[in-house]
């Protein structure tokens, strides 16, 4: 796992400033503390920071082919590199190292841009082809590794993180108001946009080609649910078990210590079960929980149960509300743009703990998006349909004021809000509100003059999801349609991005075996009833094939427990120190001086929260944005 940088000037006579690429590298030292390298070639510069995992002695980057006409700077791991290496040797390629990086170089020589189609793993890389005067950027299929780029007037720059691009003198730190508009609905920005105007995320499953002062972005992979396997239930379970075991085993490659993030849930327990079976020494496992009195979010008992079952070397950390608030600054800095996912801070702390023991960590990320783990969303879809049957005047003139004045129920409020959406949007209301914060009306109520016009031009944020949903119209199953949207937006732009940033802040490599694309493609072809089915009690049994595959291998208490995730008591937090911090932030330029928000209305949300209304997620989104806006010195 590493940090990569590069810059290609449009003018072939212009020579890059070595000091600039050095500064870009220095900004990413946390991603690669073990080694650094730079390659200058005409109007191009490549930079690299290395976290040594494979071929510790000779894996220095940037790396080249035999005649030094092709150079690469690479971040990630290629799990099928050994097989590809043998294939390339048979074709006459000579290797100087045993690294997966060099495999990509020689594979590019054979297949050019189509090399990405042969790679199994997580990756972001830049390849300079001197003979073709072409810069080739690529990002893995699911978006496990990030890659940002800045197409400036005189050059195209790229980096693993935004902070690398911020070293480029021509990049202005101007706010992207469209991204802010979407963030306040989804709590994250949607690729290719970022919160900084002119800086873009290369979308998952895409490549970028730059030559002659121009560039183009192309998609090379997409997820397809249209074809289903002709297997009976036992065959589906057996094949899933075989593939998951093989994928997890392949993720154990490396020459440094590794462990597992063990929450005590089904997904992380499944990963731990396989890793424990494949390693001779006790697996190091790590978990995190809140420890303040009154918190009901401590899952350590389940993590400890799994640790005993698999005889792991278990480590855990308990954080308090004060720890949560104290970690805010580091979290916002590490994320580089606002992301209002409060589970990120516990992940930050447990990653710090894990790095004291291991360099590689595996997690169960991605299982919910592949196997319909969000069963509550499907129940919510049905309940919102029931609310829709109530006449609109009663919903809006009676039930909504009643809920606002007495019940203060976010769930009832959401059902009422969803029931007012046009029928054409209704099939996608579930994914559009995954992590949803403000409605369009709610955003309009808090916007200042500087945001109102931009919001009108941007249009409703829900349209981003509607556009994704349109790609699924050929899928007969609603569940598959929702899973496609989850995977393409929520997974890539929230879960995986926060996972990368929180772990790499501590030079810790995260691996996610559930998201090996070969497994993902197989699961997409499973019939829907192998993922989710009615449980007979009015609800749904989620991740059916996973539960069946690990029956008898995972303790029943974990196998059948209700999904909890990592809920954070935001309402309570805003009643304490975080409320004081929010009051201070809401008086800073991010709210009071920028003109982006109506300062009185924003402060009013804080007062209402103290008086019984639950505005925790709204206040959290505004607080994170305010901290980021001030920390990164962004202008309007």
Question: Which key features would you list for this structure?
Answer:
Rossmann fold, alpha+beta, 6-stranded antiparallel sheet, 636 residues, 19 strands, 3 domains, 16% strand, Glutamine Phosphoribosylpyrophosphate, subunit 1, domain 1, 44% helix
| CATH class type of the largest domain | Alpha Beta
Q: If you consult CATH, what is the topology of the largest domain?
A: Rossmann fold
Number of domains: 3
Average per-residue pLDDT, rounded, comes to 90
By CATH, the architecture of the largest domain is named: 3-Layer(aba) Sandwich
Q: What is the tally of helical segments?
A: 28
Number of strands: 19
Rounded to the nearest angstrom, the distance between the terminal CA atoms is 35 Å
Helix percentage: 40-55%
Structural notes for this entry:
This protein has 636 residues and is α+β, with helices and mostly antiparallel strands. The chain has 28 helices and 19 strands. The strands form four sheets. It has a six-stranded antiparallel sheet with strand order 2-3-1-9-8-10. Strand 13 (258-261), helix 7 (266-278) and strand 14 form a beta-alpha-beta unit. Helix 13 packs across helix 15. The longest helix is centred in the C-terminal third of the chain and has 27 residues, at 478-504. The radius of gyration is 24 Å and the shape is globular. It starts with a strand and ends in a 5-residue tail after the last helix.
Question: Helices, strands, pairings?
Answer:
Elements: E1 2-9, H1 18-26, E2 35-41, E3 44-50, E4 63-64, E5 70-78, H2 81-90, H3 100-111, E6 121-129, E7 134-139, E8 148-151, E9 155-159, H4 162-165, H5 177-186, E10 200-201, E11 206-211, E12 214-219, H6 233-250, E13 258-261, H7 266-278, E14 284-290, H8 300-310, E15 313-319, H9 321-326, H10 328-335, H11 344-355, E16 360-362, H12 367-371, H13 375-388, H14 392-407, H15 410-419, H16 429-432, H17 440-446, H18 449-458, H19 462-469, H20 478-504, E17 509-511, H21 517-524, E18 532-534, E19 540-542, H22 544-549, H23 556-559, H24 570-573, H25 577-585, H26 589-593, H27 599-610, H28 616-631
Parallel strand pairs: 13-14, 13-16, 14-15, 16-17
Antiparallel strand pairs: 1-3, 1-9, 2-3, 4-5, 5-6, 6-7, 7-11, 8-9, 8-10, 11-12, 18-19
Helix pairs in contact: 2-3, 6-21, 10-28, 11-20, 13-15, 27-28
């Amino acid at each position: 796992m590493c940090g990569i940088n590069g810059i290609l000037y449009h003018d072939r006579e212009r020579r890059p400033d070595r000091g600039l690429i050095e500064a870009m590298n220095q900004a990413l030292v946390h991603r690669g503390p073990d080694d650094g390298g730079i390659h200058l070639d005409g109007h191009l510069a490549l930079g690299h920071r290395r976290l040594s995992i494979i071929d510790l002695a000779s894996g220095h980057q940037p790396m080249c082919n035999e005649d030094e006409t092709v150079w690469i700077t690479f971040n990630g791991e290629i799990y099928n590199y050994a097989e590809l290496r043998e294939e390339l040797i048979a074709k006459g390629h000579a290797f100087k190292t045993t690294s997966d990086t060099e495999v990509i170089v020689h594979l590019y020589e054979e297949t050019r841009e189509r090399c990405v189609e042969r790679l199994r793993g997580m990756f972001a890389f830049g390849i300079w082809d001197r003979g073709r005067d072409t810069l080739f950027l690529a990002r893995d299929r699911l978006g496990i590794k990030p890659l940002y780029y800045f197409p400036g007037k005189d050059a195209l720059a790229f980096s693993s993180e935004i902070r690398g691009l911020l070293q480029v003198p021509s990049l202005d730190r101007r706010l992207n108001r469209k991204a802010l508009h979407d963030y306040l609905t989804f709590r994250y920005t949607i690729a290719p946009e970022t919160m900084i105007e002119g800086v873009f995320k290369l979308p998952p499953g895409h490549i970028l080609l730059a030559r002659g002062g121009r560039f183009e972005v192309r998609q090379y992979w997409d997820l397809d649910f249209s074809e289903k396997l002709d297997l009976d239930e036992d065959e589906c379970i057996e094949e899933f078990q075989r593939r998951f075991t093989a994928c997890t085993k392949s993720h154990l490659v490396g020459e440094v210590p590794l462990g597992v993030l063990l929450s005590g849930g089904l997904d992380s327990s499944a990963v731990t079960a396989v890793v424990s079976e494949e390693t001779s020494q006790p697996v190091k496992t790590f978990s995190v929980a809140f420890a303040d009195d009154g918190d009901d979010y401590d899952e350590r008992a389940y993590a400890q149960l799994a640790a005993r079952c698999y005889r792991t070397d278990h480590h855990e950390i308990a954080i308090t509300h004060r720890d949560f608030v104290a970690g805010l600054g580091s979290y916002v800095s590490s994320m580089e743009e606002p992301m209002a996912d409060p589970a990120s801070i516990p992940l930050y702390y447990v990653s710090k703990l894990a790095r004291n023991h291991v360099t590689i960590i595996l997690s169960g990320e991605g299982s919910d998006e592949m196997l319909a783990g969000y069963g509550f969303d499907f129940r919510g879809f049905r309940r919102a349909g029931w609310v829709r049957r109530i006449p609109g005047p009663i919903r809006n003139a009676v039930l909504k004021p009643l809920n606002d004045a007495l019940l203060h129920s976010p769930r009832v409020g959401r059902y009422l809000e969803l029931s007012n959406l046009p029928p054409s949007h209704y099939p996608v209301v579930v994914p559009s509100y995954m992590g949803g914060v403000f409605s369009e009306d709610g955003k309009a109520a808090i916007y200042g003059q500087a945001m109102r016009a931009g919001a009108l031009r941007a249009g409703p944020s829900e349209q981003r999801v509607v556009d994704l949903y349109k790609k699924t119209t050929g899928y007969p199953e609603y569940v598959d349609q929702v899973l496609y949207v989850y995977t393409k937006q929520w997974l890539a732009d929230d879960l995986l991005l926060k996972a990368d940033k929180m772990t790499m802040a501590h030079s810790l490599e995260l691996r996610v075996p559930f998201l090996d694309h070969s497994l993902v493609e197989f699961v997409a072809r499973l019939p829907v009833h192998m993922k989710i089915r009615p449980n007979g009690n009015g609800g749904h049994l989620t991740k059916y094939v996973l539960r069946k595959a690990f029956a008898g291998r995972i303790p029943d208490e974990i196998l059948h427990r209700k999904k909890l995730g990592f809920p954070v008591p935001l309402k309570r937090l805003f009643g304490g120190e975080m409320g004081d911090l929010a009051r201070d932030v809401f008086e800073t330029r991010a709210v009071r001086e920028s003109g982006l928000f109506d300062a009185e209305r924003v402060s009013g949300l804080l007062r209402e929260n103290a008086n019984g209304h639950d505005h925790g997620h709204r206040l959290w989104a505004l607080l994170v944005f305010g901290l980021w806006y001030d920390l990164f010195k962004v202008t309007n």
